[in-house]
């Protein structure tokens, strides 16, 4: 995947001289567009002021105008409403970048020039956010003959933007990483299974300073990682645990661990899902995909942090060999688990990876990213990931990081009482609760049993790992996998590495 959107700058003395298939501008309710874009308005013989006077251009959030200007070098003008400047948020700038690209794609344009609005934020921040939105929007997962993407995206602004070239370099890497995560998550099970996921990981990190270890079936057997082994038993393709280490802070510093759920396809196992429930389950490896993408971003950006990413990979399929309800699994950490439902498989593979990380690394914290439960979708819809943790500081850091990147997380409790529900008559715990009550919390409570002393957070991303039909539509998130959590955790790690 080549990211070739940003091709540098040309000098223009006035906006109406931009040479591109389209120019895109952001307008606001409380600043007249002809004042904000004086040179452009003049070059267009007062078009902006006339549009405003006619009431067709109000600057309200969500408003988009596409105008055709055959006599101009840019031929098309895209105008995106940004609401009130007093209410401007970071995400509105991402949305502006994203909306500009979406409209350019609609019109099948090869090149787009986005004007950076002059607002109450540093030029660097504006450029970063608009470019991030544009880069994320200029992504499409498709196996069609032809994919329409904007080949060239440029930014115009005051001279100062010339000083912020590194900003674009950083955004390009972040966007490339997120889109790589989306590629991995979007790929259907006939392309990506535990074997080909492994191959993809080696390819992704080729030439980057990371160590990759893979624990294959025999290794998992030796170590007693029976959670991963049991879930993977129904498939012809054996499960495995991939471990990616990036030691950017040196050997004296503790590790940040990120564990991603990698169920390459979740048919439910012998507790088979129904057709509609199964239809989206290629996305059940999103956590693993996004964790790999995170490691890629961290390595590309050379963050001074020690990061270890662990992705347990398996296919959850029914077969004569599949694990069965009422099986009792002895997990890597010694706990026994009574399988009450083979469709509650994510927690079993994550559990082994969590306790493996805690046993084998000196950890600062451990965060897992998982499409764990349908119940979290009932609770929060597609607007936030469920956040569960045993540590207040970690919780606050994650919430802060999430506000920066507009990837919402929302805390849910892990009170003692919930643990009653996973008591088993025959094993230490069972893998589901009682009825449908508090399903997302039960999943998290189960996981917490596999972390003894490390600050731990679990992000249940089932509602937000891919764009659901009825979910929110952000222009910078095209159909399919969202890459949720990559930017969030990157931000979290950046802060952690700066304060360590
Ligand atoms: N991968 C699913 C969770 C899921 C459901 C993700 C819908 C995204 C959308 C998970 O493995 C699962 O099947 N969970 C069960 C748990 C139940 C058996 C306790 C669920 O949510 O129904
Ligand atoms: Mn399942
Ligand atoms: Zn699953």
From TrEMBL:
Keywords: Aminopeptidase, Cytoplasm, Hydrolase, Manganese, Metal-binding, Protease. Its cofactor is Mn(2+). The active site is at residues 273, 347. SUPFAM superfamilies: Macro domain-like, Zn-dependent exopeptidases. Binds 2 manganese ions per subunit. Mn(2+) 1 binds at residues 266, 343, 345. PROSITE patterns: CYTOSOL_AP (PS00631). GO terms for cellular component: cytoplasm. It is an enzyme of class 3 (hydrolase). GO terms for molecular function: manganese ion binding; metalloaminopeptidase activity. Its main location: cytoplasm. Residues 341-348 form the Cytosol aminopeptidase domain. Its EC number is 3.4.11.1, 3.4.11.10. Pfam families: Peptidase_M17, Peptidase_M17_N. Mn(2+) 2 binds at residues 261, 266, 284, 345. NCBIfam families: PRK00913.1-4 (NF002074). Belongs to the peptidase M17 family. Presumably involved in the processing and regular turnover of intracellular proteins. Catalyzes the removal of unsubstituted N-terminal amino acids from various peptides. This is Probable cytosol aminopeptidase.
């Amino acid at each position: 995947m080549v990211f070739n959107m940003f091709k540098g700058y040309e000098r223009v003395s006035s906006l109406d001289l931009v040479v591109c298939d389209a120019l895109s501008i952001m307008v606001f309710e409380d600043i007249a567009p002809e004042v904000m874009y004086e040179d452009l308005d003049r070059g267009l013989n007062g078009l902006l002021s006339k549009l405003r006077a006619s009431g067709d251009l109000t600057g309200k959030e969500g408003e988009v105008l596409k105008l055709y200007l055959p006599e101009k070098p840019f031929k098309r003008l895209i105008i995106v409403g940004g609401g009130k400047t007093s209410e401007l948020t970071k995400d509105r700038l991402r949305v502006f970048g994203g909306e500009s690209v979406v409209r350019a794609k609609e019109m099948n344009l090869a090149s787009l020039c986005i004007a950076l609005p002059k607002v109450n934020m540093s030029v660097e921040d504006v450029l970063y956010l608009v470019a991030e939105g544009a880069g994320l929007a200029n992504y499409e997962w498709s196996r069609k003959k032809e994919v329409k993407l904007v080949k060239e995206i440029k930014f115009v602004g005051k001279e100062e933007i010339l000083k912020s070239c590194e900003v674009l370099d950083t955004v390009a890497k972040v966007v490339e990483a997120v889109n790589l995560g989306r590629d991995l998550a979007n790929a259907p099970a006939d392309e990506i299974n535990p074997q080909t996921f492994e191959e993809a990981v080696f390819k992704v990190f080729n030439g980057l300073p990371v160590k990759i270890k893979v624990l294959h079936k025999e290794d998992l057997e030796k170590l007693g990682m029976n959670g991963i082994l049991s879930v993977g038993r129904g498939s012809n393709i054996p499960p495995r645990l991939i471990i990616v280490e990036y030691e950017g802070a040196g050997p004296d510093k503790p590790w940040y661990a990120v564990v991603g759920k990698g169920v390459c396809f979740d048919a439910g196992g012998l507790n088979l899902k129904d057709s509609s429930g199964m239809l989206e389950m290629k996305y059940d490896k999103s956590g693993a995909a996004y964790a790999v993408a995170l490691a890629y971003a961290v390595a590309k950006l050379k963050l001074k942090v020690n990061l270890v990413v662990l992705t347990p990979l398996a296919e959850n399929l029914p077969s004569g060999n599949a694990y069965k309800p009422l099986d009792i699994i002895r997990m890597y950490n010694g706990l026994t688990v009574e399988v009450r439902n083979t469709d509650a498989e994510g927690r079993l593979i994550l559990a082994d990876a969590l306790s493996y990380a805690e046993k084998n690394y000196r950890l600062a914290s451990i965060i897992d990213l998982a499409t764990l439960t349908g119940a979290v979708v009932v609770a929060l819809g597609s607007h936030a990931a469920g956040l569960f943790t045993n540590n207040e500081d970690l919780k606050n850091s994650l919430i802060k990081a999430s506000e920066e990147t507009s990837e919402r997380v929302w805390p849910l409790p892990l009170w003692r009482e919930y643990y009653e529900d996973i008591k088993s008559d025959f094993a230490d715990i069972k893998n589901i609760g009682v009825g449908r009550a508090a399903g997302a919390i039960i999943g998290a409570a189960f996981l917490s049993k596999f972390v003894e002393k490390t600050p731990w957070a679990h992000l249940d991303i089932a509602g937000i790992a891919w764009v659901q039909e009825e979910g929110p539509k952000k222009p910078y998130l095209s159909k399919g996998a969202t890459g949720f959590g990559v930017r969030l955790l990157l931000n979290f790690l950046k802060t952690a590495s700066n304060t360590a």
